[in-house]
Amino acid sequence: MCHGEIAVKKVLAALVVSAALTGTAFAQAKIQVGCTATSDCASAMVAVDEGIFRRHGLVVEMTPIGINSNIPAAILSNSIQIGGPTSTVFLQAVDGGLDLVAIAGATVMSPVSNGNITAFVRNGITIKEPKDFVGKKVGAPGLNAFLHVLFVKWLVEKGVDPKSVNFVEVTFPTMADIIKSGGVDAVLTAEPFVTRMTNAGLGSVGARYAVELARTDPIIFYAASREWADKNAAAIKKFRDAIAESAVIVNNDREKASNSISKFTKQPIELVKATPPNRSEPVLKPEQLSWWIEVMSSQKMLQSKLDTSKLVLK
């Protein structure tokens, strides 16, 4: 064999190895899943920690996002490929022209999870009825996000003009410090932050507004850009299968779920264990978004008429 033939064979062999490695790298491309510091993405947290994603052939990493309303932009910039936006943030982003699609369910409202949601009021502020929020400065973990829109819905049902309340954005991890400093009069929050602030003597629960609304609609679900979803159909199938498997653990194994939630949210494990995680429901149906669209339209948050059949990936 001449030197030329040997050189060609070496080049071909190198190309074969390179192609194989590239194929492996592509198949194992890391998927970043972005969520805020709540238990709503517990199914993804558990799927990472328990190796469920890995068993389904995916390499997934969780990325903390401070404010839920920042998730759509993070998806579009490709800093994350999958995000956990609240129903309201997702719908407003789509209404604004962002081509996002829901790919799997995360959490839904339930009697238990509704009880975890409160308007927590700092010391020195008295709230006895809805109208007492008039003129108050209220922090929300994302304007037009889940807790904010629900609270506005509750105010309207109680005959209070939401415009009479001064809303500002406050991230979950900073709520205790802002309440303590008097930077806001109240925050719209959920467990385990409620218990943590109560135990620290920072204030008290002013209203359990989600209990009074008594809904069972989606809180948060997993979403991606439609372009990414179209190009990664196989990965999405694996993601859905992994989330379905993980949801069973979230709903039935408090120990494993609490450990994963504590790890991601940086909340003390004792507090997390004291609060049942929101119910994980991996299947999301288009009609489940109808109530949210109705509420948001009534609050003039949507400019177009959204077609629910196009919002959830089949």
Automatic annotation (TrEMBL):
Domain called SsuA/THI5-like: residue spans: 41-252
Compartments reported by the entry: Periplasm
GO cellular component, one term: periplasmic space
Keywords annotated in UniProt: Signal
Signal peptide annotation: 1-27
Chief location: periplasm
Pfam families: NMT1
Protein family per UniProt: Belongs to the bacterial solute-binding protein SsuA/TauA family.
Protein name: ABC transporter substrate-binding protein
Organism encoding this protein: Bradyrhizobium icense
